[in-house]
Amino acid sequence: MIDVAPAPLKCAYLRLDRATPLASASQSELLGAMCFGAAPVTAALPAGAPLVRVPMPALAAAGAEDCASEIWCGKGEVRYGTRGPLAFGYNRDLLFGAVQLHETSFDTAAAARAGKTPLQLASEAAYTAVFSLLDELAFPHVLRFWNYIADINAESHGMERYRQFNMGRQDGFLASGRAVRGEVVPAASAVGCDPGPLTVYFLAGRGQRPLAIENPRQVSAYDYPSQYGPRAPTFSRASVARLGEADVLFLSGTASIVGHQSLHVGDVAAQVRETLANIDAMVREANRAAPQAGFTMEALCYKVYVRRASDVPVIARELRAALPASTRILYLRADICRQDLLVEIEATAGHPMQFMADE
Ligand code: 3EB
């Protein structure tokens, strides 16, 4: 048994349609919160704290729509601010931020003349806004990005919207002087939500650059061939961040992809098993990169994106067969960025989590 120090970062999945979801100690150290689903927020949160709603319902065990919030807390005094559409909270070590942009603001004649789609421009603007905040507040390292894109599989302007997003994201990295392949590319998820603005949120840090982890079973996403779009997606498979004395693992959205190909098309149970094999491979890689960390699949906290709500029972059965009953799993109704994928799983480890069922 490896003795693991507590990390100065805590994630909780809780309901904010309850009066007092968080212990008051965590409350004063809250960096920000994301709300999934439509329930009203009645919880008292610190004034000015970022609280961003995503049109992506949480799913209860049988697949019925529900709500949940993802709440990030640090250690020590927090400051809050906004820069235009970007809301953030930070302490000495960590910055949480979220930006929402409506594509309609980018639907201009000038954009059309520039040959860029509104979603591509919104994506580029979201990323340049994030990177300029990182420069301003001196948080050089992104630990993880999350991207939620309405109607992600729809085609417009002659291209699938996920591919448009990939072009805009890469434009934003390049315009901000950031590398788009290799060890400095952050971990991420990109999935489809219900109609609404583009949402990008992130955690960033100071100190040591996080270790970027790739999956030996998969081609690096930034090296995908052009059959998946004119610009490759800009993300690494996982990152390990050293926070205080602890190592925190962020696994990117992971799906039933081996090499660069989608496997088990139409078979959601087999897709879950392949995804778990990918997660197992990445946990091994993470332990090779950070041998002192002792990451295990059992100790991860999972967020599962489900294309069809009716698949939740099958997905839950597969996860129960592979993981202990105590494993913390949040299900969300989301489209996966490839049409042929039914499920995508992300996970984090290394910091204590509070879960809805703990209430
Ligand atoms: C994949 O492996 C599945 O574009 O940021 C997973 C995680 C996926 C992140 C992203 C996409 C992204 O290609 C899709």
Automatic annotation (TrEMBL):
Pfam families: FkbO_Hyg5-like_N. InterPro entries: FkbO_Hyg5-like_N, RutC-like_sf. Residues 70-204 form the Chorismatase FkbO/Hyg5-like N-terminal domain. It comes from the Bacteria. This is Pteridine-dependent deoxygenase like protein. It comes from Noviherbaspirillum aridicola.
